[in-house]
Amino acid sequence: MTTFPLLQLPLVAMEHVLCMMSPFELIDVSLASSRAKRCVKNFTRTQQIISTSFDNSHHSITFQIKRMSWRYAIKMNESHASRYKCVNQLARIHFKTDTELIIKVSEKPLKEIIKWFDYAREVLNCKIDDVSLDLGYPSSENRETIDWIAAQNKTMNNMEILNDLGESYDHLNEDLKYIMKRIHVSGRFNLEIEKYKDDFRMEIPGKPAYLCILNAQFIDYEQLLKLKSPVIILQNSILTSQEINQFLRSWISCETHFELEAIEISVSDPDAMIEIIDLPHEKTNDPKIVKAFGGYPHYHQVKNEIFTIKRSDGKKRASVNIDRLWYGRSLFLIVH
Fold this sequence. Notes:
By secondary structure, the protein is of the alpha/beta class. Helix content is about 35%, strand content about 25%.
């Protein structure tokens, strides 16, 4: 095998070669010797931070640079590894993504992926800023994962929390609260837990730019007033029509949600709009507003009446529409 004298090159030439390497290749080079590791570290410190995501259900780390990504995953056996490889290949074809995939096998995948990434972040300019956490694992493992992530970065750009692996409700509620204490979200936060204990209550800290809660039965009216996100999606909500009406009144009077851009709240009563819109309003079918409902974040095709309300300072208006979708009836609101 022909060797390449990388470390003997002049600095500029060596950095030019390193610049053409992928994160995986840089890690491989760093493992060659202590001098190679030092050269890689010195080079990556001058580069842009690599966006990195972690998924505990697949025990995977993904590096993202522009439209290219590199994923390192660890599975418990060869069967799981083969299945994961097939799923990634199908996703790559369907979504037309360009992802390089490395899969390893270990009886302790969490321990090994943590060990691998601890070395990777030692030599690369990277940090986890996007996480997907499945709380179906034992509480001790969940908290070990949460502490490991929080030690690197306490504010995520994006976070997804779910419970696909089992119905571990005994510890799930407390583990979820533990995450909220240790990690905040600045960008997109999807909370996809389907079931909680009957008396479960929890506050959402910080101000995620986008907050989507699949089961919002723990969000009462007082909690709604504390939510600071510009975009809020509350499915399976327990809020009554009267409380939603009161929320709109507080927005009109500039008492709350001054930075609100859009909100969706599920409603159970087919006649909810009568009570919800019992406040000063005007009906509209403005094509611009109809088009706005069809865009981010609702992507909702308006089929019935739109009601528009005006904030008391005269600077903003909000348009409201209620419709029944495949997952139930919801109120959609956009601020303009």
